[in-house]
Amino acid sequence: MRTIRGRVHETKNAEATLLLHPVSDPRRFGIVKLGEDSKVLGIIEKPTLEKALTYKIDGAYLNIAGLLVLKSNVFDFIEKTKRGKNNEFWLTDSIELMRQNACRLYGYPFTGRRYDIGTFDSLKKADKMELANK
User: Fold this and answer.
1) Scanning 11, 17, 89, 130, which has its CA 20 to 30 A from the CA of 97?
2) Each residue's pLDDT tens digit in the chain (134 positions)?
3) Are residues 70 and 16 in contact, defined by beta-carbon separation less than 8 angstroms?
4) Is-contact 74 16, C-beta < 8 A?
């Protein structure tokens, strides 16, 4: 892996490295609490504002921005994952299981431009912004 994220993943001998981006409202996202050396201390998916409060840092929440570098042992944890909210399976729950089982998980804060395309309105906005950049 030649990317910075790949080098971080390999240098730390991580089992999961998550690209993170700050958001002001965590309720639509999986968010991460980071500790020293960017180690993941907790992950929650689509939390209430109350549950997310301890994850807030510098006025924002670090959401999983869609890029994950994972070792194949993630599949063992996917098989053990129980259904979450709305009776859905969430990869973030599997990754949280990894963390609870002492796997090495790290976050990589991303400071560049990120387009949220999780809703139709945000997809339209991202498309408009990208077209304006051309």
Assistant:
1) 11
2) 455 556 778 888 999 999 999 999 999 899 999 998 899 999 999 999 999 999 999 999 999 988 899 999 999 999 999 998 789 899 999 999 999 999 999 999 887 777 777 778 878 888 888 888 87
3) yes
4) yes
